[in-house]
Amino acid sequence: MASRCTRLVALTAVAAAAGTSLATPANAVANGNPVPEGRYRFAVKLTMTGIPKPGGTYYDSACSAALLSPRWIVTAGHCFHDPRRDPVSGPVPYETTATIGRADLSRRGGHVVHVVSVRQGPSGDIAMAKLDRPVYDVVPLRVAERPPAVGDVLRITGWGKLVATDPAPAGHLRTGQLKVSALAAGTVGVKGYRPAPGTSACEYDSGAPYFTETGRNARFPVLVSVESTGPSCPHDQEEATTRVDPLHDWIRGTLLT
Fold it and tell me: Environment class of residue 65 by beta-carbon count within 10 Å: exposed (0-12), middle (13-18) or buried (19+)?
């Protein structure tokens, strides 16, 4: 099982100071579909630059996330770490921006805001990150208070790759559906469902939301879990995701700060 957050561009300290651009964007969510502009506006693209390595060099990376309130987003805990790749809380450890409310990076609209601080979850691979200014015109995801059931259909939205060999994360938000295949104390196992059995998260989808949108949740989707780790994509195997219902009180408490 591999982390969904990988190095995007390796930089020396000199190159970082000079400014190094990211590679050309690719697509996201292996065997998924492009999201029409205006749908799933709570989906967040995180762009990290100047991440330090132990040897004094730097690299850029990216993650996916979701808006839970005007000032807070949720993502994978491993997206924010020190040079040893240990997850950290406190002031954001490197320059991080959040693109919210936009499905295509080549278009205008939505918001690009800075992430200023991060709080690692009390358990599991999950973190909450605070924005430097609120986003009021995007309806946030609600958070599940109860676990899903095996067989439930969840939707993912993510900014990752289309295949593991792509050079860079998405330029367009993509989505797909997966079924809950297993439940554990802090995780939800999911397997691809639609558009294909091989619909799966990919690198840079770390932190992507899995949510319900059926029945009474069709209009107001409910977050069930966030992407953490899984096999090389695309694949039809089980993907490990972090449950949010056991962390509901911690999440709600964080949103109030």
Answer: buried
